[in-house]
Amino acid sequence: MEISNKQKPRDYDKEPLVINGYEKFFAIAWYLVLLFSVLTIAIIEDFMECGSLCSPKGVVMNLVMLGILIAICIFKLIRSKQQIRFTDRYIGFIENGVVKRFCKVEFDELRRSFSIDVFISSEILQYICNLSLMIMGLIALKWELLKIIFFIYLWGFFLNFIFYLSMNKNLKGFRAMPFIRVAEPTTNPGYHNILPRYYLIYIYNDKIYNDIKEYFLQKNINIDYIKKNYLFA
Question: Quick check: is 157 in a domain?
Answer without folding.
Answer: yes
